[in-house]
Design goal:
- The structure is a homotetramer of 283-residue chains.
- Helices cover 34% and strands 29% of the residues of chain A.
- Chain A is of the alpha/beta class and 283 residues long.
- The first copy, chain A, folds into two domains: 4-83, Alpha-Beta Plaits, CATH 3.30.70; 88-282, Rossmann fold.
- In chain A, the strands form three sheets. In chain A, strands 5, 6, 7, 8, 9, 10, 11 and 12 form an eight-stranded mixed beta sheet that branches.
- In chain A, a hairpin with a 2-residue loop joins strand 13 and strand 14.
- The longest helix of chain A is centred in the last third of the chain and has 24 residues, at 246-269.
- Chain A is globular and about 60 Å long.
- Chains in contact: A-B, A-C, A-D, B-C, B-D, C-D.
- The A-B interface holds A 38, 40-42, 195-199, 211-215, 217, 231-237, 241-243, 245, 276, 278-282 and B 38, 40-42, 195-199, 211-215, 217, 231-237, 241-243, 245, 276, 278-282.
- Chains A, B, C, D: Pathway: Purine metabolism; IMP biosynthesis via de novo pathway; formate from 10-formyl-5,6,7,8-tetrahydrofolate: step 1/1.
- Chains A, B, C, D: It holds the Pfam family Formyl_trans_N.
């Protein structure tokens, strides 16, 4: 895949944004290979994502940023531009359950997911061998009710040390403290094993069985201080019947969890997810 | 379709139920064309539905009931047996929205749904012409906050007068009073325009937009005194995106609502739904 | 909904298209509320759809066309611009089966589908009363193997007389002659009751039963001289099991057919479907 | 999970089968925990699957077979009975693509799939390390157009040596010779990366792109001498758009392939798949 710059923009909607941005790029010979726009009729906000061939522009990323800055200022844009050739650094966190971790590692290993994975952190040592087979360092950082602060200090240190820009909670099962949520706002992705907002918190499949629902689901979302209430990136469901026990739900749900998490992570890695308050625009 | 007797049974599980029932029918030459069983490992309860060709048995429905009663007693069965040739009497209730009503009427008119529809009741006169085109009587029973008791007394009178055994709330939008829920326990079917238990009550699509979910759904359930909390018969969802406004959700949701309601009603009409506390077994 | 001009463009891809079009509209104060782009990496072709608020431009449709023409010529564009306030004229054709026709008529009647329906044509008289209840003229144009030429001459005359720009075959079940396909290229929409390219031609559900597939489907496509081989607009499937007879498939398939047809027709009416050889871009 | 005997039966339908089988088990105190029946109205054939608790019966598998044989003979049954505690021996065959293999190995490793995997055979050495990490022997049996007979003789020898009763082609990409298909009739499971019968043979995603379909799929089926034409166990699809290149289809398709293959293999391992000519009954 030819490298592209990915420009994402959000700003108040008005006449001339598309023209101005289009003109900027075409004036420099920039070849746009992908373009998405969304005007929110409720908030009057405008969102945009453009991919421009790196090789079509006469300058590099820093110069692009410098040249684009005045336009951004004119329109009051929140904006970002990334080089698809500079993959994000993603730290995976897991507990004992392996399905989401195996899935993400395999997608990375087979070059389906373009990112660096500097390390995996887990509160159990169970998945060490699996992770290390992939040539990825594994940090076992135990946690118990008494040492939570210590645990998360250590997690935070590892994240900073590896200069990670994304943390994926691949069924990590611990509640992230608010200060960590805030520090990495829009960078911590979780998979919750229910179709949110139903069945927040612990044991969602037990809750689902209790209520007698006919579909179970999974939700990939950014983590915020309020439990399971952050901006949703993706969701999906699978049909169950009276015949499925909680154990069956756990098994069937795994397939939905890993698919939804992988799709959400992929969208995030490709800068397709724009935040808008507690919602997402996913191009 | 050849007429069949539909026997549904629920009782504590133990050895010999299937054999006893099987023996009973084969002893009389009864030809079983459909058989479903479910043993609930949690409650230790057993559920069964059999369809037996009417013409293969040497006796009619009343005699079948009489002969089967001792077996039912021996095993402590809750049981029912119906003749597929004697369609249920279903009263439809609607408000102004036509999509669910049109859908059900068309399925009935094209002989996809086997039931009698003695009348349609609505708190508005909007859909009269549509209903009457189908040759079905239409009762306009207005309702306002001041006359609810009167309204439901009239509804109840119409239901009793027509000896209905099922009431389908095809987007009727009024809360059924508890005594009516109790009187027609397991006989009143509602369609709620959300994936329950999310978004109970009013304006579920607005709630969905507020939360930023990526799927919207509909739930067909039996009505109980607690709002939107009755046993679920069927559910389904449809994918939406940031691009869909509440109006889009309303439009897209209609297709899910009518499909889920039609499937739920069909299952009910064919005696496929067995109640188990606040859950359903749907064979 | 505020009226918009819908501009669709296809042309060879190159630098500057988006900028030029954007500049054109912003130069006239045009407010773009929806914008879609697609660059086909295989053919090097570029496709675009823009919706611009009618009230934001200082001129009407004809002047817009005149002013835009030079740009279109410069880039070698195939292009169209329509006013969303001027609904398309759609003639529905049906046979005896009512499910697709009822569905489309209901969506039109409840203002979900924005179009005019000048008349319905059928080779049977079965659905007359249903159509006429909607206040739409019904033409019964019988057909038999001996009078096909005559039949289609009459159909063609009705289409021309009503200045229809779209013909929807809502389970019409007759093969359209090649000259009619060519005359109305990209304007005749059919629903085929299989997941094409499987089960072309007659009795697809029988073919599906024969092969033992586990999903059945429906395909909405533009009609071309080659049977069931035209550009696909939309498709969907539904799960079946060994338990479903051909009659069950026919019943279950109806729901998929009408949903897929309605979605395809809606996309067509909103100028979201661009033809690219035998494929479609659906924005 | 408590061990059960799984009895599967197919025979001409007639009165008394269910009763006779039920009586047999209840007479010996046999506790039926799962029961499925299907009467095919077209062929007049009857299919049944029962799970009976091992511990509820006074005898073992061999004695059960001996006692049941007279009943089987009376009704002309094709029948099988297996002990769920004696897992099947499954040999996996793969080529270079890892997604299906990784998925199956992970499900086996996490005890989701109950079977023994005596070895993996591949015509490439690519996946050796992955397989061996799981503690499973890996046989690299190269193949080229000149040595096909030799290759399959070696494959056959390995299968016989390990007394495998199931062979799963996890994207093995070689055509199995007819004599091997016949020898292991109903025991060789393949995943084909299209929604069969569309796109038989090589490069189905290229065929799908060529035709412009809006859904792509995968089919899990038993292998027979005719290419991609054996009895279908399971199928599924995923939505694509004009925006998806063949590479995107390959990527998206992988998720469907591995899910469908895993479901099909699971059904097979649990004796849920009964063959009926070129079709399957999947209980």
């Amino acid at each position: 895949m030819e490298p592209v710059y990915r420009l994402t923009i959000s700003c108040p909607d008005r006449v001339g944004i598309v023209a101005k941005v289009g003109q900027f790029f075409s004036g420099h010979g920039g070849w746009i290979v992908e373009a998405n726009h969304y005007s929110d009729p409720v908030s009057g906000h405008f969102f945009m994502r453009h991919c421009i061939r790196v090789n079509s522009l006469p300058f590099g990323l820093e110069e692009l940023k410098a040249q684009f800055a005045p336009i951004a200022e004119e329109f009051g844009m929140d904006w970002q531009v990334n080089d698809s050739g500079a993959p994000k650094k993603v730290i995976l966190m897991a507990s004992k359950e392996s399905h989401c971790l195996v899935d993400l590692l395999h997608r990375w290993h087979s070059k389906e997911l373009h990112c660096d994975i500097p390390c995996v952190i887990s509160n159990h040592d169970t998945l060490r061998s699996l992770v290390e087979w992939h040539g990825i360092p594994f940090f076992h950082v135990p946690v118990d009710p008494a040492n939570k602060a210590e645990h998360f200090a250590r997690v935070n240190a590892i994240v900073e040390e590896h200069k990670a820009d994304t943390i994926v909670l691949a069924r990590y099962m611990q509640i992230i403290p608010p200060e960590l949520c805030s520090r990495y706002h829009g960078q911590v992705i979780n998979i919750h094993h229910s179709f949110l907002p139903s069945f927040v918190g612990a044991k969602p499949y037990h809750q689902a069985a209790e209520r007698g629902v006919k579909l179970i689901g999974a939700t990939c979302h950014y983590v915020t201080p309020e439990l399971d209430a952050g901006p949703i990136i993706d969701q999906d469901v699978i049909r169950i019947s009276h015949n499925d026990t909680v154990d069956d739900m756990v098994r069937l749900g795994k397939d939905v969890e890993k698919m939804v998490l992988a799709r959400g992570v992929r969208s995030h890695l490709e800068d397709r997810v724009l935040l808008h308050g507690n919602k997402t625009i996913v191009f």
